[in-house]
Known about the structure:
single chain, alpha+beta, five-stranded antiparallel β-sheet
Amino acid sequence: MRTMVINSRDIKDLHPTVAGKAYTFVERCRQAGIDLLITSTYRDKQSQDALYAQGRTAGGKIVTNAKGGQSFHNYRVALDVVPLRNGKPVWGTTAPDDKALWAKIGEIGEACGLTWSGRWKGKMKEMAHFQYTAGLTLQDFQAGKTF
């Protein structure tokens, strides 16, 4: 029997508090003329391990530094997005128009109470990632704490 691996794109799979903030975020972006595609919400540990394997033991490029249990996605408190321009995803983050678009998305997400990893320093900086942890750390979630 094959084991099901979950890498959801559905806001409903987030913690209810985070889902509320995510719905508001998507709607405020829409009101600002920005269409967002949700690329990831909840990931189970097996899905996280598969992503971690990319560029290491599996084909593709490295897309995460987190193994299963080491990502806020595993605890239903994070989502990844990509803006659409003329119906196509804008993956670029350095061209002036792209950089401005991502900055606006980050500002909107933060105004909705989400933490935007586009402001983080070092290798953990990721324009597409937003989360809400209510002040809990990854270690808190790993220990079974929740809000």
